[in-house]
Design brief:
By secondary structure, the chain is mainly beta. The chain has one helix at residues 3-24; strands at 42-60, 68-80, 86-91, 95-98, 103-112, 122-130, 141-149, 165-179.
């Protein structure tokens, strides 16, 4: 095995071994509206900070000739623990995937405007699909809170921009919940 490949394998093994310990630390979550609370039979597993972009695409509005808007396409973000170590990624689905192989795909249950009105909405999502192993295998609910940025572009959407994408910076906290034993 080449030295570079061996270093990469060793680094991956170290990160995978450290992931469970890193996930035990829980950043402070803001209070949420009752509609965004995880069900009472759930316990908080861990919280991760996301830093990335919300991707929007200029599209024609269906059924409204001559009208265009910036429509949400997908998120693209790194997931970080409280030591600012990247432990995973967040992408379309919406999907959260961690370095230990854990993965959960969510389905939107409810949302609320960000309290300051400046960030994308806060969300409560239910797990629609989980990996068989890893830190997210038991996750049943996901909250997105403490959002900054990520809102649709303010620039005009028009025919000249159809198909163009805009990547808008955002941050958020994602809290993962599982059933109490």
């Amino acid at each position: 095995m080449h030295a570079k490949t061996l270093r990469c394998v060793l680094l991956l093994l170290c990160l995978t071994a450290l992931l469970p310990a890193a996930l035990r630390a829980k950043p402070m979550l803001p209070s949420v509206p009752p509609a965004l609370a995880a069900p009472e039979d759930q316990k908080l597993l861990f919280v991760l900070r996301a830093k990335g972009v919300q991707i929007y695409e200029c599209r024609a509005v269906a059924g409204e000739p001559g009208k265009y808007e910036w429509m949400f396409k997908a998120p693209e973000a790194g997931l970080f623990d409280d030591q600012d170590i990247k432990v995973g990624r967040h992408y379309a689905g919406p999907t959260w995937e961690l370095a230990d192989g854990g993965k959960v795909v969510g389905k939107l249950k409810t949302e609320a405007d960000a309290p300051d009105g400046k960030g994308i909405p806060w969300l409560l999502l239910e797990a629609a699909e989980n990996s068989a192993a890893g830190s997210l295998s038991k996750a049943r609910w996901v909250q997105r809170v403490a959002t900054t940025g990520g809102k649709a572009p303010e620039e005009t959407a028009d025919a000249s921009r159809v198909g163009q994408e805009r990547r808008i910076d955002y941050t958020a906290l994602y809290a993962f919940y599982a059933a109490r034993p």
